[in-house]
Amino acid sequence: RLLAAPEAIFAQFATHNAHTLATVAEMARARGVDDYEFQCLHGMGEPLYDNVVVAGRPCRIYAPVGTHETLLPYLVRRLLENGANSSFVNRIVDAAVSIDELVEDPLAQARLGGGSRHSAIPLPGGIYGAGRVNSQGLDLSDECSISATTDQLHVLSSRQWQVGPLVPGATPDGQGLPITNPARRSDVLGGVLDADGPTLELALANAERAAPGWHAVPASTRAAILLRAADLLEAHRPELLGLCVREAGKTWGNAVGEVREAVDFCRYYAQQLLSDAFADAGVAPGPVVCISPWNFPLAIFMGEVVAALAAGSPVLAKPAEQTPLIAGLAVTLLHEAGIPREVLQFLPGPGETVGARLVADPRVKGVVFTGSTEVAQRINRSLAERGGARLIAETGGQNAMIVDSSALPEQVVQDVLVSGFDSAGQRCSALRVLCLQTDIADRTLVMLKAAMQELRIGDPAELGTDIGPVIDEEARRRLLAHIDRMRALGRAVFQLPLPADCAAGCFVPPTLIEIDALADLHGEVFGPVVHVLRFGGDKLPHLLEQINAAGYGLTMGIHSRIDETIEAIRERAQVGNLYVNRNMVGAVVGVQPFGGEGLSGTGPKAGGPLYLHRLAEHGQVLPAMLSQREADGLCDPPLLFQRFAEWAVDSHRHDLAQLCTRYAEDSLLQTRLVLPGPTGECNELRFAPRGRMLCVAAQEDGLLRQLAAVLATGNRPVLVDTTLSRDVAARLPPELAIRIEFRSRQALSGLAGVLLASDDPALRFSVAAEDGPLIPVFTESAEGYPLYRMVVERVVSINTTAAGGNTTLMTLGA
Known about the structure:
One of its GO terms (cellular component) is cytoplasmic side of plasma membrane. Pathway: Amino-acid degradation; L-proline degradation into L-glutamate; L-glutamate from L-proline: step 2/2. The protein is built from 28 helices and 28 strands. Helix 16 links the parallel strand 12 (about 400-405) and strand 13 (about 435). Helix 15 runs antiparallel to helix 28 (about 760-770). It is globular.
């Protein structure tokens, strides 16, 4: 049509496709039109347009003009379009592509495939490989997809749920406590009967008797039960969704994610049980207490419970006081899947009574806990009184997102909304401190405040709700008191108004508070409150020092387009999960193993390769992890350890030299694992030293073995200041001796671990009594020290679409 009206339109055709160009030229010739031109982008299509110019046809060369905010997306789009292996621009310079192939009709080629997928691109259910099926999602934007679920939820909305202790032989009685909906306090879902003293005693006796038999069950049988449990969770999704919404106050999207994560835990740990690493049953661990939180009442509850069961331990499961109903249903489904009732017992009740009683009992050989740092400290001290019990604790964080001036504000705003306010800010990983470089702070805050006003706050039972309630009235009062305190200090506060119907529930409006320094915050603020801290571009190193000095190490976000900045932060950030150019929440099992360090937890990471390892007390790490290290070429041990190993050989200490050889093979320090996941995302697990390690041994050989373990994992050795340790250090190579620190046995502050050649109850108790991060104590076994526990796991999750997309897709063949 453009060529049909040359007297009215001067046609201009911008293309780098020879087929399109030839078609236009032939159409113009057939119509006798000579008044038109072609256009090409500066630096592109030059061989093609050399022929056009020779033919006498005008060609205008153009270039984009504008700011980097508009220019970069344009250039990236061009690069992706023209760099793709199917691009004409790409193929025309490929000598291996014939003219006949080049001019083939792309529609005809597409029809030949019949709509089938590319063999190298897995379907959603298969993104984790053949060994694990992805959990089922639910498209909340598709009315057809959710209609059946909404009908079932409507029927279930009037159901009264009743739960109590599930303990074989127990007949608890008494008055149950009501469980109410945090969005509508008048909505009573049902009731819970707490476990009393006799019930707890019976449960402990049951678990102790069941331990040998459950540990003897083959790993393949346990895995089959977990897979059946995953299927049952998906079959009962409507009931689970309804309880997530009404009992925990979760929005529909969060509820779907919660069920999926529970399913993923079952299938991930089942997959691990079927690997070669668990062919050996390991050490009989004994009963484990699992204490879970209310913010993920199904996912974390199931993650803790099924991991302990998979490792061969009977489980005493204590749910959060606020959310026992959904946990009770989950236990019922696990029993239905095949877990014996004496192997998994359900014990609802307060932490101060039920939890404390279970933790203090010597029959309990392990505790898995998710909650506050303060409670984790109390549990750790209780276990230290008797020694030998394992503790995995995941606690909170003062999570920061660092945004520099190169970041794209539109994406920053979107990710802040999700990271800070989704789930009403009640995620362990939620954003607490938004650090904005001064250059872009004002512009970003204007956009963020405008976007916040689009959020819908209200009853999460409504599909359109974005932000639901906080868990209870106590949490609401605590959050509002913090906001009022910051106002009283003169801090700028931006807060959304609450709709009138929110007065019936426990709602806190999304809030922004500008602060002057991280020191303004005295602990984690667990709710929809994001603190904003401005920083100058030259103050980034100081900002990182402040964040690390706070002692928390759970999650951190980075928004930057500068690779050097991202890498500099990654190298210095002491956090378990680092997210680049994406939101900071929603870690997926096996894709972003989750857990922190310092005040944020003990490790290993939930949904990661070492979690079952710790619970099952296996001495060696997964062989697949070590082979991956060698495949990535990262197998050189630390230089100081190499020098120590050489010294052992030169000193004719043959046993020590052999131990160094084995430790060099077993250390995870130089291991890098690329984790599976969806396209557009890169997830990687690496390991880093913990820090200063105190070595306590009465004999020289024992002290040298401890030094081997500490140096193999990249940690710094600290020796008790004695004649023995001074003498040993004096005989070491000078470059190593100068790195050794000496302390008294009482100087425990700042340690990242303690190695004991033999058990020392007094010292173990003193270590547990220290304030701050929980300090692990490592004792020597016949296989040596557990090197995998002497490093910290760190996951980096990068949104590759922020840098133009998944470029590997461009290299896929037809």
